[in-house]
Write a structure and sequence with these properties.
The protein is of the alpha/beta class. The protein is built from 16 helices and 17 strands. The chain has 2 domains: about 140 residues, NAD(P)-binding Rossmann-like Domain (Rossmann fold), CATH 3.40.50; about 270 residues, 2-Layer Sandwich (Dihydrodipicolinate Reductase, domain 2), CATH 3.30.360. The strands form 3 sheets. A 9-stranded mixed sheet has the order 16-15-14-13-7-12-11-8-17. A 6-stranded parallel sheet has the order 3-2-1-4-5-6. Strands 9-10 form a two-stranded antiparallel ribbon. The structure holds NADP nicotinamide-adenine-dinucleotide phosphate.
Length: about 475
């Protein structure tokens, strides 16, 4: 049973979509395999394609075999599908909801979760139809899980929020940012707040600068037209990188979710806006040209399908930010994200102020694909000399087989948290609002200044103009 001994009804709208096949169903499989799925969960998959439950089950088997983290077992798969029902319906058609209503009626007083694995323009229509069909009435509690993007600017985010609030309370809205489900993002709080050595030096007296980077070797894949409308700032910085930034710098929260949300949003609200007159010191945009990645020739952004050959959308963004917080005065924070770069990697570097002209101590929190924490520091070179050399302490969490096996993937962790009504892994509305406010102002400054993306070759580290943008010692610190 879910929380409060009620049956749990988990409905996925968009049950024949990429997200459901690659992430949600494999995550449910893993939760069953690790005995983390609450008892009494029924999974209702909504799609308009012509499946019945039996043919849908046959269809999803290869996806689970390919994408589940844990090895495939017929027994676990059978357990999953014994709780799964496919409902064929068009979610824009009010009449079709009768089937859902009848289904839900079998489980009065259920904990109901609706997962909107659909494009955001459908959030409002599904919510209204759920209310209109009286589907919500029988539930003991309900929660709605929604995927990014939460709007494309402050206005559209507000509209979306208002539409959802017509049916759901803020308490029942779970906004997914899958980065919050990643192991090392969660670990970041333990590293910061459970170690004297870090807690006491996490300020401008000791920190020289911070970089938060998320690089991908892939291009726009089959999402050319979406990406052309979106770009790196809205696709990565506004959500994922701001989430990481807030966790890296927030004040230690009290042990309740409101305090966590308040402290996270506080950091985003304190970012000093970038203005048109100083934009070149704070922002570099880039766009990839054809190049070579992993020995393969790849096309440039303009050659991608469904992208205009004159598009000025950025596929790379580097922001140099300052936070108006007494603890971090004068500490630049670099946010970096790009597609078609040399290497796939997401990580945080905290670079401390050097002493006696030695190399700075660097704390690296590696988020993906490797997970771990690495601290470099200076020590005497072994032997008779008094020379100083850089050494490091490594905690490679993902190098240990048991750790890999026992570490849930992001969607597993997020679904588990949602079943248990733990909102701490989800994005609060104030965070969404504050981040769009910053990004809207940034785009105003971009338009006023007329800055355009620099070109960079696919398979490199981004535009060459970055060299002058970074602190002098950055190239020798981040050698990837
Ligand atoms: N894919 C990812 O890894 C990923 C990651 C992060 C966020 N997201 C977000 O998650 C959402 C879903 O993404 P996706 O990649 O899974 O999209 P998708 O592959 O296009 O799937 C959309 C789903 O909605 C269904 N649908 C559309 N209109 C319908 C209607 N009127 N009635 C019933 N079903 C309808 C589609 O059914 P048909 O099969 O019949 O077309 C399909 O099952 C989007 O908001 C996306 O931005 C996705």
């Amino acid at each position: 049973m879910g929380t409060g001994n009620h049956p749990v009804l988990f409905t996925i709208f968009g049950g024949t979509g990429d997200l459901t096949y690659r992430k949600l169903l494999p995550a449910l499989y893993n939760l069953i395999a690790t005995k983390m799925l609450p008892k009494g969960v029924e999974i209702i998959v909504v799609g308009r394609r012509d499946f019945d439950t039996q043919s849908y089950v046959e269809h999803i088997k290869p996806w689970i075999q390919e994408f589940a983290r844990l090895s495939f077992s017929e027994n676990i798969f059978n357990e999953l599908v014994s709780h799964l029902t496919y409902i064929k319906m068009n979610f824009t058609d009010t009449k079709d909801y009768k089937v859902l209503y009848d289904y839900y009626n079998q489980y009065p007083q259920a904990q109901q979760l609706y997962y909107y694995a659909v494009a955001p323009e459908f959030f409002s229509v599904i919510s209204k139809n759920l209310r209109q069909c009286s589907c919500l009435k029988n539930a003991s509690t309900y929660q709605v899980l929604i995927e990014k993007p939460f709007g494309v600017n402050e206005d559209s985010a507000r509209t979306l929020h208002k539409q959802l609030l017509e049916v759901f309370s803020e308490e029942s809205i779970y906004r997914i940012d899958h980065y919050l489900g990643k192991e090392m993002i969660q670990n970041m709080m333990s590293i910061r707040f459970q170690n004297t050595i870090f807690k006491n030096i996490w300020n401008h007296h000791s920190i020289d600068y911070i970089t938060i980077s998320a690089y991908e070797t892939v291009g726009v894949e089959n999402r050319g037209s979406y990406y052309e409308q979106t770009g790196a700032i809205k696709d990565m910085v506004q959500n994922h990188l701001f989430q990481i930034l807030s966790i890296v710098l927030m004040d230690e929260p009290e042990e309740h979710v409101e305090s966590l949300f308040k402290n996270q949003a506080d950091i985003i609200q304190r970012i000093i806006p970038i203005e048109a007159n100083n934009i070149n010191e704070h922002l570099i945009l880039g766009q990839y040209e054809a190049g070579v990645i992993d020995h393969e020739q790849v096309v440039g952004f303009h050659g991608e399908s469904n992208v205009s050959p004159t598009s000025t959308t950025e596929t790379f963004a580097a922001l140099k930010l300052f936070i108006d917080h007494p603890q971090y005065q004068g500490v630049p924070v670099y946010l970096l994200s790009g597609k078609r770069t040399k290497k796939r990697s997401t990580k945080v570097l905290v670079v401390f102020k050097p002493v006696n002209n030695q190399k700075p101590n660097v704390l690296t929190i590696s988020i993906s694909p490797d997970e771990g924490v690495f601290l470099s520091f200076n020590a005497k070179k072994p032997g008779n000399s008094q020379d100083v050399v850089e050494v490091s302490m490594d905690f490679c969490q993902s190098c240990v087989y048991e750790n890999r096996l026992n570490t849930p993937e992001a969607y597993e962790r997020l679904l588990y948290a949602a079943f248990n009504k733990d909102k701490s892994l989800f994005t609060d509305w104030q965070m969404v609002l504050s981040s769009w406010r910053f990004v809207d102002k940034l785009f105003l400054a971009i338009n006023q200044s007329g800055i355009k993306p620099y070109k960079y070759k696919a398979g490199t580290c981004g535009p060459v103009e970055l060299e002058a943008f970074f602190p002098k010692n950055y190239q020798e610190i981040d050698t990837e």
